[in-house]
């Protein structure tokens, strides 16, 4: 019995825990929920609450003045945000997934979930985000219990058939275009094989143990010396890597995507991150 209790403690099987908080990392009852929201003290996943401010915030597809917005512009606005954030978070380590909610309910609107490969990377990102602002709004970041996004996302939404719309309690993850996905996540290609074979829904403890076992398989690309540019690698990804090192050294010199507009605007926003940090220590 005690063993059984120990095995369910902190999981959704434990009836005192809120299944929504456990699975989705957000519950519409917030702090007033009658069940427990077990906030993890460490996790590979961070939640940045309500961070993405969509241009059609009041009514989907329509600007605050009531004029319809071209869906292409909405997507561009989103992809600019996604790229901006990705580059910022990538400084702390390899991003396993970056999911931004398209939901409209208060507890989920604009929620950003970033899962790093390692808990320490998430901890580093959290430290750097605390007290910072983005587009004039304070960033509310915390560790999240969500590590299995397949459990957290709405399958109907993926099939375009969710009739709960923006008020669904499961994640409606907004997608980026294939080109941007390749540009951002392509830099991790070496490790893709491993992350695909990684089975889902394992406890952090078990994952750690398994990671220990597999460490030998993928030690080289996680080697920090390499990450910071020892330059000993000369694969077809060397260009990608160089870009990344440059961007780490001096973000303003970064050549951002020539494909889409708004890179000037984005650069201005990136500078704003830091300026605001200095003004709001
Ligand atoms: Zn709850
Ligand atoms: Zn749904």
TrEMBL record:
<feature type="domain" description="C3H1-type">
    <location>
        <begin position="148"/>
        <end position="175"/>
    </location>
</feature>
<keyword id="KW-0507">mRNA processing</keyword>
<keyword id="KW-0539">Nucleus</keyword>
<feature type="zinc finger region" description="C3H1-type">
    <location>
        <begin position="148"/>
        <end position="175"/>
    </location>
</feature>
<feature type="region of interest" description="Disordered">
    <location>
        <begin position="195"/>
        <end position="281"/>
    </location>
</feature>
<dbReference type="Pfam" id="PF00076">
    <property type="entry name" value="RRM_1"/>
</dbReference>
<feature type="compositionally biased region" description="Basic and acidic residues">
    <location>
        <begin position="206"/>
        <end position="249"/>
    </location>
</feature>
<dbReference type="GO" id="GO:0003723">
    <property type="term" value="F:RNA binding"/>
</dbReference>
<dbReference type="InterPro" id="IPR009145">
    <property type="entry name" value="U2AF_small"/>
</dbReference>
<dbReference type="GO" id="GO:0089701">
    <property type="term" value="C:U2AF complex"/>
</dbReference>
<dbReference type="InterPro" id="IPR003954">
    <property type="entry name" value="RRM_euk-type"/>
</dbReference>
<dbReference type="GO" id="GO:0003677">
    <property type="term" value="F:DNA binding"/>
</dbReference>
<keyword id="KW-0863">Zinc-finger</keyword>
<dbReference type="InterPro" id="IPR000571">
    <property type="entry name" value="Znf_CCCH"/>
</dbReference>
<dbReference type="Pfam" id="PF00642">
    <property type="entry name" value="zf-CCCH"/>
</dbReference>
<keyword id="KW-0694">RNA-binding</keyword>
<keyword id="KW-0479">Metal-binding</keyword>
<keyword id="KW-0677">Repeat</keyword>
<keyword id="KW-0238">DNA-binding</keyword>
<dbReference type="InterPro" id="IPR035979">
    <property type="entry name" value="RBD_domain_sf"/>
</dbReference>
<protein>
    <submittedName>
        <fullName>Uncharacterized protein</fullName>
    </submittedName>
</protein>
<feature type="compositionally biased region" description="Basic and acidic residues">
    <location>
        <begin position="261"/>
        <end position="281"/>
    </location>
</feature>
<feature type="domain" description="RRM">
    <location>
        <begin position="44"/>
        <end position="146"/>
    </location>
</feature>
<dbReference type="GO" id="GO:0008270">
    <property type="term" value="F:zinc ion binding"/>
</dbReference>
<keyword id="KW-0862">Zinc</keyword>
<feature type="domain" description="C3H1-type">
    <location>
        <begin position="12"/>
        <end position="40"/>
    </location>
</feature>
<feature type="zinc finger region" description="C3H1-type">
    <location>
        <begin position="12"/>
        <end position="40"/>
    </location>
</feature>
<dbReference type="InterPro" id="IPR012677">
    <property type="entry name" value="Nucleotide-bd_a/b_plait_sf"/>
</dbReference>
<keyword id="KW-0508">mRNA splicing</keyword>
<dbReference type="GO" id="GO:0000398">
    <property type="term" value="P:mRNA splicing, via spliceosome"/>
</dbReference>
<dbReference type="GO" id="GO:0048573">
    <property type="term" value="P:photoperiodism, flowering"/>
</dbReference>
<dbReference type="InterPro" id="IPR000504">
    <property type="entry name" value="RRM_dom"/>
</dbReference>
